[in-house]
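DM from R.C. (forwarded with permission)

"hey, sorry to bug you on a friday — could you get me a structure for this? deadline for the figure draft is monday and I only need the backbone to look sensible"
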Amino acid sequence: MAMEINGSYGSCNTDYEEALRAKRQERAEEAERAREAGKDASAGPVPKDEYISSEASGNRPSGLYRLGQDEDGNPKVLYDDPKKPAWNRAAEKADQKSVDADQDEDPKVSGQKCIGNTDRVDQEIRKLKEQKKQLQQQIKSAAGDEEKVRQLKAELAQVENELSQKDNDTYRKQNTVFTEA
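My reply, with the result:
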């Protein structure tokens, strides 16, 4: 089944479209008149930043900002108000210095010296290597006894596994003994 629709749809303009066109035309004409008069209809005066030196302004600075820390040690921007009495500002700075000094007592930051000792770990590794050599020699000498060779190979595998776990820098670091110098 086929349907045929006849008609021209390009001529269907609504009143709303015409109203929008008229408003746009009015705004454009109004902007053109304002430009001719030397005014910008869309915005007022444009604010600008400009540098004024302290000598030219004749004023003291409005305040000083510095980086400090709060009670928990978190970074914080501190404001030194020039209107506060000088003795009050000095007291605040002294409090801040005492907070900074308390944080310097941390052993990670202070000049405390320690000595690391890995002798115990090195001795364990030496013993395991000697044990491995002995087991390899025993395997060679017991070539005729299959049961004994199998048992020695199992021990050798266990010693090699332990040696591979202990003969590395990570194990040495974990088992280092530190003493104060």
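R.C.: lifesaver. The first strand starts at residue 64 and ends at 69.
me: no worries. The beta strands are 64-69, 75-80, 114-117, 177-180.
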